[in-house]
Each structure stands twice: as C-alpha cells, then as structure tokens.
C-alpha cells in the first residue's frame, strides 16, 4: 500500500510532465505509423505538395485539437465579454491582458503534440526528403549547370537514395538536411517552451 501511495503521490505531483510525455509518445507513435505504412512518396513532380501535406497538415490538426480539448479555451470563450467592454477606457487593457495571460499557457500546451510531430518527422526525414526533392529552389541550387536530367533524378531520390551520389557529393544529403533543420528550428522553441512550463510549475507549486 505504501508503494502504491507513493506512486499515486508522484503521479499527482508530476501530472503535467506525465501528461506531456504521454501526448508526445502517442504523437511519435502516430507519426511512425504514418511514415512507415501510409506515406509513399510519389517520386514525381508532386513530391513538394505530397511531402508538405504530411509534414504540416497533421501538425495543424493536432494544434487545433490541443486548443479544443483544453478546458481553459472554452472557459475563456463562454465567459468572454464584447470587445468594446473588455477594452473600454474604464478597464484599460485589464481584460485583454487577462486573455493574453490565459492564452499563453494554453498555446504552449497545444504546441506539444504538433511540435512532437514535426520533430519526429524531421528526424525520420521521410516527409522532408520527399518535399525537398520536388522543391524548385532546392533543385536549382543542387542542379546548377547540370540540366534537366539532374532535376529528374532529384524527384526520384526518395525512392532511391543512391541517386544522390550522381547529383552531389559535396553537400549534405536530404536526410541530413532534415535533421539539421530540426536542430535549427526547434532549439529556440524548446527553450521558450521550457521557460513557460517552468513558470507554470512554479505557480502550481
């Protein structure tokens, strides 16, 4: 009984972190299923659109769901007053500041799942590799002075990684570019998110 009580106490004290961890694990598992079972890059001129949809649309849906399932969002909407009253001269910025104060932690929580999706997707590189191989800017950069044949090879790289050696041996592969993008994009977001979550835990404590 003492051990069970200890586990319950630990879960209650760290329920926020555990909740984020569960959401992240479920999102990572979903992304793995999508990338390995559902996702099949066409290796054609439609690579850019196909890869971008799988990379961004699920993240957007998860972000909106994060707002919808948060009780604070509905409380804010149902208890909201007209804008002319909220921001009237008698209450200068009071209610507007309160809305922003509530929305910041709500947004931080809603971003957990979509950022996990993007992070896992960039780490696996399947979606990025497909989208980047069909991007005209990337094609122009790597196929400079190499003609149309190089561009035709670029869109087929997701289906045959060995073709990359025929295009460039001096630059990162598309998979490596995806992982570098992950570090560049998510590092500042992770720092700001960690600060927000720490402030929440201090207030909760």
Automatic annotation (TrEMBL):
Gene Ontology cellular component annotations, sorted alphabetically: membrane
Subcellular location: Membrane
Membrane spanning residue stretches: 12-29, 49-69
A Pfam family matched in the record: Ca_hom_mod
Domain of life where this protein originates: Eukaryota
Broad class of where this protein is predominantly found: membrane
Biological processes annotated in GO: ATP export; monoatomic ion transmembrane transport
Membrane topology note: Multi-pass membrane protein
Alphabetical UniProt keywords: Ion channel, Ion transport, Membrane, Transmembrane, Transmembrane helix, Transport
InterPro entries in the cross-refs: CALHM
Family: Belongs to the CALHM family.
Protein name, per record: Calcium homeostasis modulator protein 6-like
Record organism: Grus japonensis
